[in-house]
């Protein structure tokens, strides 16, 4: 009888896992919406377009800040930059939010096996609590972090180690910001095969992981990050050969919008850091043409790698029960307004691709025109997977738009970027409704607005002129300014350090003989009792941990006390 009961319970567990949808979470670095599914008729992206055909294209999706770490932190925590205090590439979100439950961590706590390949968080700011296994990179290493002390990295090595340049250079002159010199030029027609480059290696690893995950009893959350089309523009020759550079669109203006403040732009420093890039701005036309060619080649190269992952998903019979999310961490300027890369509040930098495919949805292949934000992704995935939506998130579920992409917009999208103005440090908050983008440059930790921009994205999609000083738009600006966060939101937390942690040279270890009271205090410092989510956040196996929680909770009050934890393991 006991054997039959055990078999029955195991079958129920397997059935529950089978009914929970998997998540394939694809991040693409520096990808603007130059994709076939977004209406670009020149770009060749058949595989990303496959995802679009299976799901919804969010045509007006916006990142929270147009630079890697703040944007990635926002989508993975569901919190805005002013909450995480991540406005740069030097700060880990756990400095200000040490107990934050990330998107993958929430799924992990609810029985999912969560794994990350290549760039998801900004490199150097990994978060071991988010995953069931070390974060894999195509540079021969995997990174975990101590369960309690997130500043302590645990690095292990593996045998997949790729390099993007065919002949990387060492020993160049350090850059002005103190960082080491680039190992090669801003672009390269690579003689390598797909798998010899980092993104090809990542796709190959994803294919292996899908085959392995198929046999697991729990559903999976597999996050796959692709590096291209981020600079340098390195792609195999066959992808360069897909394009005639003369057919790639050229920006209509190389100047900042009339009426915008000078500090709204930048000096293209990210691009100028590469050897061989002309020093002047705007970038000379011939060199700019080659860069655009390289950017398109890299998009098609990345698209091909995504295709390998989609093929594996189909081959393993997982497609019918896997939600696919594809996002670019922000937009990218290809010379618009004389600017390259991101780092602005302009539409071209803040708008990014967002595709969500939920199997069985009757609206597959449609587009949504409502403004949405990256902080909406976390609550959306929890909602469509039937998980509780944590309180305190910065966004809202997009399930309504997945079921009906034509549903009316219910909110605006907010992006931001810090700058130095003549008046001092400012934060530019950019408010995007269905038609207009208004940017209010407010002094840091103050109420004064030092400059305002307003663009009609319907009549002037390239943002050539700011309408902020037009009397007829006064009422519109008064409406949009109400969406600004409270004064002081952008103040750094007092006494909190900035900067990356140094990785240990060898993995840390945990003794299996560790006393239960010591283990509790190490895993849950300062906690008198734990909710199920809090307990699972520090446990490696979701289903087994749920059973332990129920077993240890002797008084059945739904909480696990320190004493119950200590006695339960004896």
Q: Which key features would you list for this structure?
A:
570 residues
Explain this structure to me?
By secondary structure, this protein is α/β, with parallel strands linked by helices. 28% of the residues lie in helices and 19% in strands. The protein is built from 18 helices and 22 strands. It has helices at residues 2-19, 46-54, 68-77, 81-84, 93-96, 103-109, 198-213, 237-240, 269-272, 285-315, 347-350, 377-384, 399-403, 474-480, 516-523, 532-536, 542-552, 562-568, and strands at 22-28, 56-58, 61-62, 113-117, 135-137, 139-145, 153-161, 187-190, 220-226, 233-236, 322-328, 333-334, 340-341, 354-357, 367-368, 372-373, 413-421, 424-432, 436-443, 449-456, 529-530, 560-561. The strands form seven sheets. Strands 4-9-1-11-14-2-15 form a seven-stranded mixed beta sheet, sandwiched between helices. A hairpin with a 7-residue loop joins strand 6 (139-145) and strand 7 (153-161).
């Amino acid at each position: 009888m006991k054997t039959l009961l055990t078999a029955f319970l195991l079958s129920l567990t397997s059935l529950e896992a089978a009914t929970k949808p998997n998540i394939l979470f694809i991040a693409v670095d520096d990808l603007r919406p130059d994709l076939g599914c977004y209406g670009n008729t020149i770009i060749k992206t058949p595989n990303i377009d496959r995802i679009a055909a299976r799901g919804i294209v969010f045509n007006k999706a916006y990142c929270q800040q147009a630079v890697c770490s703040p944007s990635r932190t926002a989508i993975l925590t569901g919190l805005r930059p002013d909450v995480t205090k991540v406005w740069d590439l030097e700060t880990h979100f756990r400095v200000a939010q040490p107990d934050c439950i990330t998107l993958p961590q929430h799924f992990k706590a609810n029985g999912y096996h969560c794994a990350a390949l290549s760039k998801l968080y900004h490199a150097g700011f990994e978060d071991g609590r988010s995953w069931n296994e070390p974060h894999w990179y195509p540079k021969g290493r995997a990174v975990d972090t101590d369960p309690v002390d997130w500043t302590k990295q645990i690095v292990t090595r593996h045998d997949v180690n790729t390099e993007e340049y065919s002949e990387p250079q060492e020993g160049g002159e350090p850059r002005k910001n103190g960082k080491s010199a680039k190992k090669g030029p801003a672009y390269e027609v690579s003689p390598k095969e797909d798998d010899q480059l980092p993104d090809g290696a990542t796709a190959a690893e994803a294919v292996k992981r899908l085959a392995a995950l198929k046999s697991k009893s729990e559903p999976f959350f597999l996050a796959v990050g692709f590096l291209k089309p981020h600079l340098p523009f390195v792609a195999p020759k066959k992808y360069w050969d897909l394009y005639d550079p003369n057919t790639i669109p050229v920006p209509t203006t190389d100047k900042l919008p009339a009426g915008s403040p000078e500090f709204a732009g930048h000096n293209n420093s990210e691009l100028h850091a590469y050897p061989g890039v002309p020093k002047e701005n705007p970038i000379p036309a011939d060199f700019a043409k080659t860069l655009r060619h390289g950017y398109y080649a890299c998009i098609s190269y990345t698209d091909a790698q995504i295709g390998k992952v989609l093929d594996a998903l189909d081959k393993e019979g997982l497609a019918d029960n896997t939600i696919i999310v594809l996002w670019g961490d922000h937009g990218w300027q290809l010379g618009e307004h004389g600017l390259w890369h991101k780092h602005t509040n302009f539409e071209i930098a803040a708008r990014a691709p967002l595709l969500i495919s939920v199997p069985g949805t009757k609206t597959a292949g449609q587009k949504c025109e409502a403004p949405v934000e990256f902080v909406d992704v976390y609550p959306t995935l929890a909602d469509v997977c039937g998980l509780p939506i944590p309180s305190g998130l910065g966004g809202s579920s997009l399930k309504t738009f997945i079921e009906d992409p034509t549903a009316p917009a219910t909110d605006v999208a907010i992006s931001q970027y810090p700058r130095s103005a003549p008046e001092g440090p400012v934060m530019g908050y950019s408010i995007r409704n269905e038609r207009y983008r208004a940017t209010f440059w407010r002094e840091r930790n103050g109420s004064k607005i030092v400059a305002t921009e307003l663009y009609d994205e319907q009549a002037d999609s390239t943002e050539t002129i700011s309408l902020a000083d037009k009397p007829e738009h006064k009422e519109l600006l008064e409406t949009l300014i109400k969406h600004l966060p409270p004064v002081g939101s952008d103040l750094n937390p007092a006494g909190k350090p900035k900067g990356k942690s140094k990785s240990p040279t060898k993995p840390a270890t945990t003794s299996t003989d560790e006393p239960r009271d010591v283990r509790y205090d190490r895993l849950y410092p300062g906690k008198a009792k734990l909710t199920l989510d809090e307990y699972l956040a520090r446990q490696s196996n979701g289903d087994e941990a749920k059973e332990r929680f129920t077993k240890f909770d002797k008084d059945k009050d739904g909480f696990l006390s320190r004493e119950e934890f200590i006695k339960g393991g004896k």
